[in-house]
Amino acid sequence: MPAAIRVEAPAKLNLYLHVTGRRDDGYHELDSLVTFATLADTLEIAPADALSLTVSGPFASALDAGNNLAARAAVALGERLGRPARVRIALEKRIPVAAGLGGGSADAAAVLRGLARLWSLGPEHTDDLQRVALGLGADVPVCLHARAAYMAGIGETLSAPPRLPSCAALLINPGVPVPTGATFAARRGPFSTADRFRDRPQDARALADLLRTRRNDLEPPARAQVPEIGHVLERLGAAPGCLLARMSGSGGTCFGLFASEAAAASAARAISGEHSGWWIQPTHLNHEGKTADEQSALGRW
Q1: How do the residues of the chain divide into helix, strand and coil, expressed in percent and rounded to 5?
Q2: Which domain holds residue 150?
Q3: Three-state SS for 18?
């Protein structure tokens, strides 16, 4: 068994998100194109005498280490496999909490990937990993694979999109948490239809054009709860080189798509000088996913 495993938990972005229905159990069904950023939390997982979790990093204080999804993921996988989760987990938290970037789900998924390597799980355990992931939350299955995907159902049905082009993004969060449940509950109007595209966009501008004909159905109710989201979207959309400004997930982080990292960084510098209270992070989008080692037990959809 390796002495320790280091694994990244990349931030998730919903490039578009349509709410297509509501099930009898209250969960909403979605059609969403998801991808991931190079911005990531980092976890180190090592054998230990008992399960423990320590949290550091700029957003550590926003987490409850005693009831954290990363630790629950280790327990759940251990119970599924009939083995104790005797591991030490050290989490460096760089992704804002309750921000629409799937931070907690990404951390839980990274623990599952890390334990798959630490415990030498092979492809025969793909179903175990996927079932545990879905039991932890709707975003955990897509974060488990951590590569671009169309997501349907409540998050359990994943399929490959056309190859997406290289592009940069600027992430901005106004610093106000947005509760996911309240945002879904505040959504009004008819349900949307799925609206996937099959043709491959050739560059960042073509991707933005396709996304512009789609939307995030949770953006209006999130903006109603947190008006600062509207201010962020307006400022992002006005930045030179911004091809599209949109909210991710249930909010409140918004992203602007840019053709280059230099353009995203330039916009970040300008906006940082105007809004010192906003969290502002330029990043690159990583559509292709994790390394072969991390994918070895996950299979393909």
Answers
A1: 35, 25, 40
A2: 5-160
A3: strand
CATH number of the domain bearing residue 25: 3.30.230.10
Closest listed residue to residue 251, CA positions, set 271, 267, 228, 272: 228
Average pLDDT score over the chain:
93
Which of 160, 193, 223 represents a domain boundary (last residue)?
160
Question: Is residue 187 located within the same domain as residue 254?
Answer: yes
Query: Strand 28-47 relative to strand 5-22: parallel, antiparallel, unpaired?
Result: antiparallel
User: What CATH number is attached to the domain comprising 226?
Assistant: 3.30.70.890
What pLDDT, in 10s, does the model give residues 62-121? 887 667 999 999 999 999 999 999 999 999 999 998 889 999 999 999 999 999 999 999
Q: Does the residue 289 lie in any domain?
A: no
Q: Are residues 232 and 110 located together in one domain of the fold?
A: no
- What is the rounded CA–CA span in Å between residue 229 and residue 176? 9
CA atoms of 273 and 267, how far apart (whole Å): 10
Q: 51: which 2 tokens?
A: 């399960």
pLDDT of residue 141: 96
What are the structure tokens assigned to 280, written together? Answer: 């502002």
Count of domains observed in the chain: 2
CA nearest 81: which of 120, 47, 136, 35? 120
User: Residue 91 in contact with residue 54, Cβ under 8 Å?
Assistant: yes
Same domain, 40 and 183: no
Write out the catalytic residue numbers: 12, 139
Extract the tokens encoding 36: 């991931």
Distance separating alpha carbons of residues 32 and 146, to the nearest angstrom: 14
